[in-house]
Design a protein that fits this description.
single chain; alpha/beta; Aldehyde Dehydrogenase, Chain A, domain 1; Aldehyde Dehydrogenase, Chain A, domain 2; 7-stranded mixed beta sheet; 6-stranded mixed beta sheet; 15 helices; 18 strands; about 20% strand
Length: about 475
């Protein structure tokens, strides 16, 4: 079997790679296990030096790395360059803050009849990372940077359409100075994930992907009693209330829906607008979406490139076609263009009803669904009326209303008067069918740690509890 790197803008196969054999998989796990035993004994300062070296490489080779990403999965070159820069920043963030995030946390020794008591965070071993193609660098780095700084090592099962990116990531950390095997790419299909996860040397798994893939990994990990972090799909609401800056909201809405060619779990997908400003917002939003330029992702003038796969475009087409057949109106877009590549235009669909697929399914492309509501209560009910709970956007200048939304929205994040995004400084993850666990910030680096209680009684030396390498 082989996996191919195919240019979504042309359909041309760029390179093909043989999948790893059983022997190669076993060797990779062995290298990762050996690397863990070395890495966990290194200091934070040593790891930070290697992590900064990785960041330096990302910055120095940003143009070439970005072109590789664009050719493999179709995002615009400008978006790919921004992704590379974000990855470099995350590497530097964890290089600077890992020791602080992993420092021992003293407890009240007297309350537990000890001379000293504290919590210590220690790595647990090789972690399998099952990662998607839509942000093929960032979604790996946001796991890899904290994991490696904590002293864990990674086994990367990347999406099958981005093998070049997967191999680059393994080479990135190796040449930065991390021990051989500290971040091992596995060129394997989804059917081999269970074989890796049940290996006793693999201690945990993290997955960013579909709900179905998450359930599958969670089932295996649960049977094996191994920790998992899952970041799954989203159908994020973008709520616009009467006090909002409507023009600004419409401008950001187009970016929030079409970022990464509309292929983002935290992209705004359901636009829930109060009746008082519905017409004004819709008019401005449709105008902005219609003005976006679709074309060659290597062209600096392009706003929206192709979808990453032919099947992905077919899925989006079928969802829109289903809505139209049941009475929805297409306000702009809605038809695939002629020619090569897997392009689909920025599209706005109104008059959605619960019997349409777009009402309950995630749409993974540049298609926005419009919903009119008459009150705050109706907006909340509709926003929360989904099986997903990843991110959310709210536009209101009413401070009391902002606080109500922050409390009432059932999501992993609430962004008020700004586009949902992820930052190394803030925890990232979802609720409900959007998964569990958190990435990024201090919470992310601690997810794959043994949170160890240390209690010391009479005769304990008074060493500094914060002085440890792990």
């Amino acid at each position: 079997m082989f996996m191919a790197s195919v240019n979504p803008a042309t359909g041309e196969t760029l390179r093909a790679f043989d999948e790893h054999t059983e022997e190669q998989i076993d060797q990779a796990i062995g290298r990762a296990d050996a690397a863990y035993r070395k890495l966990r004994r290194t200091s934070f300062a040593q790891r930070a030096g290697w992590m900064v070296a990785a960041a330096d490489r990302l910055d120095a080779d940003a143009d070439d790395i970005a072109r590789m990403v664009t050719f493999e999965m179709g995002k615009t070159l400008a978006a790919a360059k921004a992704e590379v820069a974000k990855c470099a920043a995350a590497c530097r963030f964890y290089a600077e803050h890992a020791a602080e995030f992993m420092a021992d946390e003293p407890a009240d020794a007297a309350a537990v009849s000890a001379t000293r008591a504290f919590t210590r965070y220690q790595p647990i071993g090789p972690v399998l990372a099952v990662m998607p193609w839509n942000f093929p660098l960032w979604q790996v780095i946001r796991f890899a940077a904290p994991a490696l700084m904590a002293g864990n090592v990674g086994l990367l099962k990347h999406a099958s359409n981005v093998p070049q990116t997967a191999l680059f990531l393994g080479e990135l950390f190796r040449t930065a100075g991390f021990p051989e095997g500290a971040f091992e790419p596995l060129l394997i299909g989804s059917k081999q994930v269970e074989r890796v996860l049940i290996d006793p040397r693999v201690r945990a798994a993290t997955l960013t992907g579909s709900e179905r893939a998450g359930r599958s990994v969670a089932e295996v990990a649960g049977r094996e009693l191994k920790k998992t972090v899952l970041e799954l799909g989203g159908s994020d609401p973008f709520v616009v209330m009467p006090s909002a800056d409507v023009d600004r909201a419409a401008e950001v809405a187009a970016t929030a829906r079409c970022q990464n060619n509309g292929q983002s779990c935290i992209a705004a997908k359901r636009f829930i607008v109060h009746a008082d400003v519905y017409d004004a917002f819709t008019e401005a939003f449709v105008a902005t979406m219609s003005a976006l330029r679709m074309g060659d992702p290597l062209d600096d003038a392009t706003d929206v490139g192709p979808l990453a796969t032919e099947q992905g475009r077919t899925d989006v087409e079928e969802q829109v076609r289903d809505a139209v057949a049941k009475g929805a109106r297409v306000l702009c877009g809605g038809q695939r263009p002629d020619g090569a590549g897997w392009f689909y235009p920025p599209t706005v669909v109104a008059d959605l009803t619960p019997n349409m697929r777009m009402w309950s399914e995630e749409v993974f492309g540049p298609v926005a669904g419009m919903y009119r509501v008459a009150s705050y209560e109706e907006a909340i009910e509709l926003a929360n009326g989904t099986s997903f709970g990843l991110g959310s956007n709210v536009w209101t200048r009413d401070e009391a209303e902002q606080e109500r939304f922050a409390v009432d929205l059932d999501a992993g994040s609430v962004f008020v008067n700004g586009m949902t995004t992820s930052y190394p400084h803030l925890p990232f993850g979802g609720v409900k069918n959007s998964g569990y666990g958190r990435e990024l910030s201090a919470w992310g680096i601690r997810e794959f740690c043994n949170i160890k209680t240390v209690w010391m009684g009479e005769g304990t030396a008074g060493a500094d509890a914060g002085a440890h390498t792990e």
